[in-house]
Amino acid sequence: MLELENLSRTFGGLKAVNNVSFRLHKGEILGLIGPNGAGKTTLFNCVAGAIKPSSGAIRLEGQNIAGYKSHRVCRMGLGRTYQIVRPFNNLSVFDNVVVGALNRSRKISEARQMAREAIETTGLGPMQDSLAGSLTLPGRKRLEIARALATGPRLLLLDEVMAGLNPTEVEAAIELIRKIRESGITILIIEHLMRVISSVSDRIVVLHHGQKLAEGDPGAVLNDPAVVEAYLGEDFLA
């Protein structure tokens, strides 16, 4: 479904993403991990059209979308969340999600129906009439996912949707991610919580200094000596 081939992005003399290649298959959850500054969010931004890659190809279902603007990528079926959640605080939860749906449909009736479906999936129904600014952190995280789902994605990029959640909230978020995958949506997820990545991912890609350090099934990658040294540390294995 998604193929990156020799993807690079430089900022001046800094190679934030350096010649990265991997594939994400339809129906799969692929975890993307690495230290802070490894290039994960830059890679997301390139894929989602927020920034233009310096070189390389990004193929979505065979079509090279490298350099496409974010609204065009969204309408092709790629949705994303952001690490820092910024809803429209003075709008209701429902209207926030409708705004997301309007990226895919210009008909307000269709956008409202798409919003209702996304709200139902994310469990935000009891809060749909509340102002977004009144939500707790878990609620805002779910709202961010709902807004992305309302765009009708076939591929969803999740950027640290677990950050700041307590263990109970993390478990609920894991179940939501599995539910989204079961609905037929392919997922690429950035996450620092290793128990999350290891439990939801079919495969893992590790970035370090902008380069791909490792790729494979969770068990093999999380026990790779190079990954332990560069990112996880010996305490993780202990």
Short description:
By secondary structure, the chain is α/β, with parallel strands linked by helices.
Task: Report on the architecture of this protein.
By secondary structure, the chain is an alpha/beta fold. The protein has two domains: 1-77 and 156-238, Rossmann fold; 86-152, no CATH class. The chain contains ten helices and ten strands. The protein has a six-stranded mixed beta sheet, with helices on both faces. Strands 2-1-4-5 form a four-stranded antiparallel beta sheet, covered by helices on one side. A hairpin with a 2-residue loop joins strand 4 and strand 5.
SSE arrangement:
Blueprint: E1 2-11, E2 14-24, E3 29-33, H1 40-48, E4 55-60, E5 63-64, H2 70-75, E6 78-80, H3 93-101, H4 108-122, H5 137-149, E7 155-159, H6 167-182, E8 186-190, H7 194-200, E9 203-208, E10 211-216, H8 218-222, H9 225-232, H10 234-237
Parallel strand pairs: 3-8, 3-9, 6-7, 7-8
Antiparallel strand pairs: 1-2, 1-4, 4-5, 9-10
Helix pairs in contact: 3-4, 3-5, 4-5
Name the poorly predicted regions: none
CATH class descriptor name of the largest domain: Alpha Beta
- Rg computed from alpha carbons, rounded to a whole number of angstroms: 18 Å
Please report the number of helical segments.
10
Helix content: 25-40%
Question: Architecture of the largest domain, according to CATH?
Answer: 3-Layer(aba) Sandwich
Cross-sheet strand order for the largest sheet: 6-7-8-3-9-10
The figure for the number of domains is 2
User: What structural category characterises the helix and strand content?
Assistant: alpha/beta
User: Could you give a short account of the major beta sheet?
Assistant: 6 strands, mixed
Distance from N terminus to C terminus (CA atoms, Å) equals 37 Å
What's the number of extended β-strand segments? Answer: 10
Strand content: 15-25%
Mean pLDDT rating = 93
Q: Quick one: CATH superfamily of the largest domain?
A: P-loop containing nucleotide triphosphate hydrolases
